[in-house]
Amino acid sequence: MKPPYYYWKNALPQLSIDRILNYIETECEFLQGTIIPYSMAGGQNVYFPKERRCEVYLFDIKNCSHIIEREVCLELIRLGREVNEIWNFDLDFSNVQIQIARYNEPNDFFDWHNDDHILNDNWPRKLTISIVLKECEEGGMFEFENFKTDENGNSTIEYEGKLGNAVAFPSYEYHKVNPVTKGTRISLVGWFHGKSWA
Q: Minimal CA–CA distance to 104: which of 24, 35, 186?
């Protein structure tokens, strides 16, 4: 039986994290995170602050000229190839989407969602990798749905979202980021696409 997710400790070394953080803090322009992507909403970004509140920066992989973005892309492809030995998804490793998500106090969050965008086109996201670049002081826990049931009947599981740790999972799995109540949480997320599941 295939595991529902895969977890790395220290997927990125501290030096790499420091370089990425310096880059995004000095050279990247963050925008409000959306729920419905631009391509699915007739050319409009759609915001639902009751479901998601955070800032994002999307790497321009097609024209990426900055050494940091190239290095991040190559590292995500390496991790994606490694973990896809488990699931054997039909993935296009030449087309990775990369996002930096920044969750600030008080109470930035992203409620239950999946990443697949299966209705977008015939090229859905199939594999998600999320790496912690900065831990907040309180809150901001990343959770999965439907992997175990606790004593209260809640079907969730948490992974240890510590600095440099990464988690990979099929993009159709539901997950969330709980509200950040103190500090700032920054994550690096990569998505790999493939042919339609059907």
A: 186
- Give domain status of residue 77, yes or no: yes
Largest Cα separation within the chain, whole Å, is: 50
Lookup result for tokens 């809150």: 139
Alpha-carbon span 68 to 73, nearest angstrom: 9
Give the Cα separation of 140 and 128 in Å (integer): 18
Compute CA 179 distance to the chain's CA centroid, rounded to the nearest angstrom.
16
Q: How far is CA 116 from CA 78, 105, 168, in A?
A: 21, 28, 13
Cα(100)–Cα(122) distance, integer angstroms: 25
Whether the model pTM is above 0.90: no
pLDDT(45) > 80: no
Domain that holds residue 119: 6-194
pLDDT band at 167 (very low <50, low <70, confident <90, very high): very high
Indicate whether 10 belongs to any domain. yes
Give DSSP secondary structure letters for 108-165: -EEEEE----TTT-SS-EEEEEEEEEE--SEE--EEEEEEEE-TT--EEEE----TT-
Split into its structural domains, the chain has a count of 1
